[in-house]
Amino acid sequence: MYNLQQRANVLFSFAITALGGILAVVAGISYITGYASISSDIRVDADTLRVVSRRYGPDYYDYGTPKSHFARFAFDLDADFTPAFNWNTKQVFVTVVAEYETKTHDRNSVVLWDKIITRKEDASLSLRNIANKYALVDVSRKWSHQQANLSLHWDITPYVGVIQGGRTPSNPTTIILSPAPSS
């Protein structure tokens, strides 16, 4: 007959198989139903937009390199991620991305700001005068009257299932980056 170890193994295997089946159903339902649309708006205060020139990187690393142009500005963000939260939402990762083209690179994307939202109570964002968290530096290290489009991107991380993401519609906020006059 079967001993205690074999019976425990059969019971454990059945429990794991049933749990895996339930989680697969949950992931399937979450993927099929999807998430509601997110409403968002980004506005840049043109008075705070400036391109500064200084060395890029930590002091011990970058002494031999020339100065780089950095874009610094403030923006307002209104977004409601409340519809993204349901019974299977663990967190929403939100980023503001600047996208632009140069002569040498067709597509450039730089993350300027990010936030992780873990609760539905914190999902409605109404932020004013937020400075970019990360440096906006081009590969060439120079800005020459460059046009950049700001857009909001998000990734919804479920407890079980596939990560789903999105971005603002095709009418993003546009900024013109030009270096400050030399003095």
Topology at a glance:
Layout lengths: L3 H30 L5 E6 L5 E5 L13 E5 L1 E7 L8 E12 L7 E10 L6 E8 L14 E13 L5 E4 L5 E5 L6
Antiparallel strand pairs: 1-4, 2-3, 4-7, 5-6, 5-8, 8-9, 8-10
What attributes does this structure have?
5-stranded antiparallel sheet, Immunoglobulin-like, 2 domains, 183 residues, 41% strand, alpha+beta, 10 strands
Descriptive notes:
The protein has 1 helix and 10 strands, in the order αββββββββββ. With 183 residues, it is of the alpha+beta class. The strands form 3 sheets. Strands 5, 6, 8, 9 and 10 form a 5-stranded antiparallel beta sheet that branches. It folds into 2 domains: 1-33; 37-177, Immunoglobulin-like (Sandwich).
Distance linking N and C termini: 92 Å
Query: How much β-strand is present in the residues?
Result: 35-45%
Contiguous low-pLDDT stretches (5 residues minimum) are: none
Percent helix, as a range, is 10-25%
CATH topology call of the largest domain: Immunoglobulin-like
| Helix/strand order | HEEEEEEEEEE
Number of helices: 1
CATH architecture descriptor name of the largest domain = Sandwich
Number of DSSP-assigned strands? 10
Class of the largest domain, according to the CATH hierarchy? Answer: Mainly Beta
Number of domains: 2
Mean pLDDT: 79
SS-derived structural category: alpha+beta
The whole-angstrom Rg is 24 Å
